[in-house]
Each structure stands twice: as structure tokens, then as C-alpha cells.
From TrEMBL:
It catalyses: hydrogencarbonate + H(+) = CO2 + H2O. It comes from Legionella birminghamensis. Its cofactor is Zn(2+). InterPro entries: Carbonic_anhydrase, Carbonic_anhydrase_sf. The keyword Transport does not apply. Belongs to the beta-class carbonic anhydrase family. Binds 1 zinc ion per subunit. Its EC number is 4.2.1.1. GO terms for molecular function: carbonate dehydratase activity; zinc ion binding. This is carbonic anhydrase. Keywords: Lyase, Metal-binding, Zinc.
Amino acid sequence: MHIRLKLMKKAKQFKQELHPEHQLKFKSVSEGQDPEILVITCVDSRILPDTLMAIEPGEVFMHRNVGNIVPEAEAAAGTSEAAVIEFALKKFSSIKDIIICGHSNCGAMKGLLNPGSGKDLEFVPAWLEHAKPVTKKLEQHSCHSELDGMEKLNLAIQLNVLTQIEHLKTYPLVQQKMKEGVKIHGWLLDIATQAITVYDEEEKVFISSEAAEEKDLYAKANTILEETAAAYLQAELAKSEDNPQEVFSQLKAGVQPIWSQIEGCVRQNLWTELQVLYKNENDPEFEKLVERVSQMKLRNLAEILPEPRNREFQAYSSALTNSGLSFYSPLQQRVSRAGAETAGQLHMSAL
């Protein structure tokens, strides 16, 4: 009775103290929703997604279950998880990201690692069968025999997030949406510190949310730079007689040769796409981003150049690539004399 009265009082207080801005927000979403993210996380009472992510009404479509588990598609008929995935992805084209979020000290993973502890439970053991691959992966892990109990639990929690991502990808609808650009992310919440780590697909490890944010930010900024540079270069090359190979030579080290011409457009496009992250256009952090972008390299020059020069350029860049050179990243190795000669021959044949 006490806790129920406490919750009722808090609900009344929330309504009374609701900021006018939030009142308008609730009113605006009262007739419909366009969430941008689907989050699947655990029912654990210590996880507060709304507080943790400062979620606004209508932004996130949320599903919670024991162990943030997603049954494989072939075993998902009749489950709420399958219904949530179908409803979210078919009804809301606005969803561009799916997050599976696990957490520290997970009771579901404890139960998975210690089956005997759930003898008094009727339904939970059957549910945890959907996470059974985690135990096999744990046993096959190179450090398994060296881990103590807590270390095994922490590793199982990580493996569970990755396993459920694999399960999520078995749904044909999810596969279709991924082709259309929907991204899937694995998160882990440390309950004690409220810190989030994010799985990095390239590094195959969980990294801090700060590191992941920076990586995603610069990847997005690089895409904006490339799109802006492409529009400029296509227009310029179409009306000039410049040799595309000379253009390549000028830009292979970076975008600086054309930065003064495209800086204004790049800045405007960056602000249009990323303004939610900054106070205003004079925000020092935004200025730092623009400066960083000015030092970036164009990764897809061959796709920028118009036909028929594009074919010449592709042959030229292919020759360099075959010799060990890359026009969009630092040199990873020294090119042998024989390789350089081969590249030169291919270069001449391309001309």
C-alpha cells in the first residue's frame, strides 16, 4: 500500500510540475508517434532508460523482457518480441536504429550459468533456452578456464547482447530494413556507474559511449564532406578540361586544395544535420568539428568523377591500389620497386 500511494503522489506531482514545453510535447504526440529508435532491454528495475538517455515522448519504441532476449525468427511465433519487431518496423518507417541493451549483474545470465538456481521457476528456464548459445560461446572462449565467477558472468552478459543481435538478424523483415539503412547496436549498462559501453563492429570489442559517439560523429561528418565535395567536383570537372589524374594528385593527401571553395557549404550541411548536438553555430565544439573536417580525406574519388573520365581514373587508382597505395588512407606499407614499376606501366596503359 505504501509504495502504491507513493507512486500515485509522484504521478500527481509530475503532472502539477510539468513544464509547459513538455505539456506541448505530450499534446503533439497524443495523436500518433514517429519513434526513431527501437530499444530492446531487460525488465530489471534498476534500468531507467528514460532517465539514462533523457528520452523525449515519442522518440523511442521500447520493449523489455527478462534478459533482453530475442528468440530466433523460426522459434518466435506467438512471442511478444516477434510482435514488437514486426509492429515497430512495419508501422514506423521513422525507425533507423535498433539497440539491444544488456546490463551488469544480470539475473537472467546468472540463471543461465547456474541452471539449478531456477528450480522453483516454471517459465523462466524455458525462456532462457533462447540464450543457450551464450553458454557454448562462453565455454569456447580462449580465456574461459582462467576466469572467475564474476568474470564469467560479465563475459556472458556481453556474449548475450551479441547473440541476441545475431537472433535479431534472422528475421527477414530486419534483413530487409538493414538493406534500407537500419543499423543494429549492442549496448551494455553498468548499473553502479550508469556508464554505457557500445559494441564496435570494426574492433570487435565494447568501447565507451564517448569513444563510440566521437567515431560515429566523424564518420557522419566525413560522409557530409564527401557528398558536398562530390557535388562541387562533378560540376567543376564537367565544365573544365582538367585532367582527372591531376585532380586526383591534388586531393589524395586531403581536401585542402578545394576547401576554400566548399567550406561554406560543408559548414551549412554539417549544421543542418548535426545542430541538435550543439548550442549554436558558434559553439567551440562545432568549430572544432569543422576544423577536423577540413583535414579529412575523400575516400571515394573514383565515384565522384563524371564519365567518361571516371573510367580512366578508376584504372589509374586501381593501378595504385594494386601496388599497395591508397588514396583515402595513410600508407600501410612501402611499395617495392617492382610494384612501383608495375603501377607505372598500368598508369601508362590507362592513358
